Amino acid sequence: MKTILRLAICMLLFFTVNVNCQSKMVKIKGDSYIPLYGRDSLKVSISDFFMDVYPVTNQEFVQFVKENPKWRKSAVKKIFADASYLRNWKSDTELGRNQSVKAPITSISWFVANAYCECQGKRLPTIDEWEYVAMANKKMPDARKLKTYNEFILSWYEKPKTFNNDIGSTFKNYWNVYDLHGLVWEWTSDFNSVLVSGESRKDVDNDSNLFCGSAAINATDLMNYAAFMRYAIRGSLKAKYTMKNLGFRCVKDLKDEKK
């Protein structure tokens, strides 16, 4: 009887831990909008989807590498992450002395961010999805024309080491999502797709001009300059790269949530 009771308690703890590891998500109602690289006649359509309320935390990522040893610092293959992968961790499963468990995980590559989301039954957001949600302020789904909105983003670009702050330390936006601006940059599934040369729609638009420094400097308003910076960062990345201020969050399609 005692054995059965112990087993029941262990099972309860196991499922409790796994439930807690699943980040809270909110529904994003889709619509169409004109992104930075679009033209007046070219809108991007976004379907309804779910997005994590917060970026993935150090605590959540520690649990992930414990359960997936191939992504530990000492085991990850060089083709999937550069030398700075989890650079400040004390060991394969321990954070560094000054790292908060509630801070966003950073110094991770696209490969592991993608694997993490898949492990959760989710995926990384596309650039269009991320930008769609991120153009909201506290009260408006599209605040890009507001001076205060753009000033907040640009002021964050000047702040050092915000990646050490805990999640939830910036504002909750119109969609009830936190920290899209003001904490860390975030991976997207197609982070460098706008730069790809070929026959894609985006390439036809000569979007490579967006990534020239002169193009950013010559932007006609603050909104463009803030967005230029995001696209420039994404365009400079490779999937194995890691940065101390680059994290991620996951999304899920509506149809997957109903399963």
Describe the structure.
With 259 residues, the protein is mainly alpha-helical. 33% of the residues lie in helices and 7% in strands. The protein has nine helices and seven strands; from the N terminus they run H-E-E-E-E-H-H-H-H-E-H-H-H-E-E-H. The strands form three sheets. It has a three-stranded antiparallel sheet with strand order 1-4-7. It has a two-stranded antiparallel sheet with strand order 2-3. Strands 5-6 form a two-stranded parallel ribbon. The longest helix has 20 residues.
Largest beta sheet: strand ordering? 1-4-7
Supply the helix-strand structural class. Answer: mainly alpha
User: What would the average pLDDT be, to the nearest integer?
Assistant: 83
Question: Biggest sheet, open or closed, and with what strands and sense?
Answer: 3 strands, antiparallel
Number of helices: 9
Number of strands: 7
Beta-strand residue fraction: 5-15%
| Radius of gyration over C-alpha positions, nearest whole angstrom | 19 Å
Distance between the amino and carboxyl termini: 37 Å
Helix content, binned percent: 25-40%
Can you tell me the overall shape? Answer: globular
Unreliable stretches covering 5 or more consecutive residues? 7-21, 196-220
Order of helical and strand elements: HEEEEHHHHEHHHEEH
Please render the helix and strand layout as text:
Layout: H1 2-21, E1 25-28, E2 32-33, E3 44-45, E4 49-52, H2 58-67, H3 110-119, H4 127-134, H5 147-157, E5 185-186, H6 201-204, H7 213-217, H8 222-235, E6 246-247, E7 251-253, H9 254-257
Helix pairs in contact: 5-8
Short note summarizing the structure:
This protein is mostly helical. Helix content is 33%, strand content 7%. The radius of gyration is 19 Å and the shape is globular.
